[in-house]
Design goal:
The chain has seven helices and no strands. By secondary structure, the protein is an all-alpha fold.
Length: about 170
């Protein structure tokens, strides 16, 4: 078992990603529909476009940012996760009907912040799992991580489907 001495660390990371992305996938799956139903038209789709545009751009320099942070890769993973959390929270804003311009601005800004955080999160995740692994266990650790992580896609879609079924 000493061959897999860091399996617990990878399990904790994978479980954290599972929880975060189950929430994120549920919220994002619901957001576009709910925003459209609440007269915000295509805001959900535009915010996703902004998120992934910034994510793609931040991918070019996220390695330098993650490497400049002292200590463990846990700090950039935490900061990146908080960016996802802020985005999920911003989906509550349209329900308050505080104004269309404010809602558009904050939802798009949170999407862009989330895109930047995604670059940090995924770069740090790769480095963290690599640090936990040896050459012999690297393939197993990455497979193990992504098997657990991908369950979030199933759970996120199921939660969104159930919410839409019972809300409508």
């Amino acid at each position: 078992m000493s061959k897999y001495q860091n399996l617990g660390r990878v399990t904790w990371a994978a479980a954290s990603f599972l929880l975060l992305f189950t929430a994120f996938n549920s919220a994002d799956n619901l957001a576009a529909k709910v925003l459209r139903d609440d007269s915000f038209n295509e805001l959900g789709f535009y915010s996703m476009a902004a998120l992934y545009l910034v994510f793609a751009i931040s991918g070019f320099f996220s390695k330098a940012v993650v490497s400049s942070m002292p200590g463990s890769k846990k700090v950039p993973m935490f900061l990146g996760g908080m960016c996802y959390f802020i985005r999920i929270l911003c989906f509550l804003l349209p329900a308050t009907h505080q104004g269309e311009a404010l809602t558009w601005s904050l939802v798009i800004a949170s999407a862009m912040l989330n895109g930047f955080g995604a670059g940090l999160l995924w770069t740090a995740q790769g480095e963290y799992v690599t640090e936990c692994a040896t050459e012999e266990t690297k393939g197993f650790y990455f497979s193990y991580f992504f098997i657990i992580f991908m369950v979030s896609q199933i759970l996120g879609n199921l939660v969104a489907a159930l919410v839409l079924e019972y809300a409508g």
